[in-house]
Amino acid sequence: MRKIPFGPNYDEMLNPEKIDSEIRKEALKALKDSELDPINLFNITWKDDNNNVRKIVLPKELTGVDANIVVMLGKGFPSGSHKVGPAYSTLIEGCVDGDINPGEHTILGPSTGNFGIGVSYICNLMGYEAVVIMPDNMSKERYERIQKYGAKLDLTPGSESDVILTLERTYKLKENPKNRALAQFELFPNYRFHRYVTGNSAVEAVKGIGNGRVACYCSAPGSAGTLAAGDELKKVFPECKIAALEPYECSTLANGGRGQHRIEGIGDKMCTLIHNVLNTDFVVLIKDEETVQGLKVIHDGTEALVELGIERSTAEYMKELFGPSGICNILGAIKMAKYLKLGPDDNVVTIATDSFDRYNSVMENLNERYLEVEGFVLKRWAKDIFLHQQDDYVYDYRRKDHKEKLFNQKEKDWLKFGYTKEYLDSMKSEDFWENEYSKVLYYNKKIKELR
């Protein structure tokens, strides 16, 4: 059996300054010069080379709200998306536990894209064969990136909202004892990475901005891993409200809707196993066409943004920062800032999972569907989508009976995959989530020892 190539533990992913200085230096060099060098495992962090959280505070000439909207940027992670973090965390925990061994097991990665890219990338660095199971109607750039990193594709029918079919396919492939699934929708390393690493990075991200606190955290659940950061934010800032964002066209959590939509990576027609609905205060619906139009505005509408009063350097800088789910999160943050009537001292934090580089085909599709996408159109879209975004389609889920709807959805989704009602009911206690989170300390110690 080959030796396991260990990378960072959770504490080092949150605080890369704790990594040996020579390793950190070599890793940062590899991030620029050698994408497939395994030392890039030590670049799995929200921090830049100065150990500051990568983020942008959006110009208020774009958002139209008094509150500060802080977007944490996933673009700087190895492979170009923060999804590489939970992919690595799930694999390394399996290695520590002795459940996954190089040369013995093939890794399965059920995904709608970014997690699959992360699985492919991490398996390349750590020496595993990988198969990514995903819908057959995603952007071609995602497929190309996965294959570039060496994984095989196993495509299921449908789009990003048909992830249940990828789960069914994964369970079928798991019948082969050599296959091990990095099951982002149900395994808790995803929760642990985002609660510990993303959540505490978000705490740092607002230092020196407004009142230095987080009034609201918004994230669109695909796996609901990123939403777990909200659990830690509520611990640090008890007044923080957590909003789960869904496509208007696939409003499963809000009202059971199960339609198709264009926001890749979210809205998967389910309540995932690792979604802690106890801390979900609001469910907010975002129209998919607005996210694609908004992406067009940010990427191609520099002149329109400058006319709205945004600094040209800022407009240029934003061009490559977001994908459709990032725009979705921004629109949700604007909605919640208006809904909660937040002021200039208040901060709303959200996430840009990836960047524009994997969505050229999405823009090509938009250009084919519209006769006019000239500057005056982009300026109108900028006003309608960002500045004049309404606080509608916000569902309050703070009441116990409303949360019960989410628990019922989770039960409907997961009993058929072999989970018992007793286990699902145990998730109705905060003790369940604190117990899962406490395992960060164990894995911090074991990863360091075994490395």
UniProtKB/TrEMBL annotation:
Gene3D superfamilies for the chain: 3.40.50.1100
Source superkingdom: Bacteria
Keywords in alphabetical order: Pyridoxal phosphate
Cofactor: pyridoxal 5'-phosphate
Ranges that cross the membrane: none
Domain Tryptophan synthase beta chain-like PALP: 78-354
Name by which UniProt lists this protein: Pyridoxal-5'-phosphate-dependent protein subunit beta
Organismal lineage: Bacteria, Bacillati, Bacillota, Clostridia, Eubacteriales
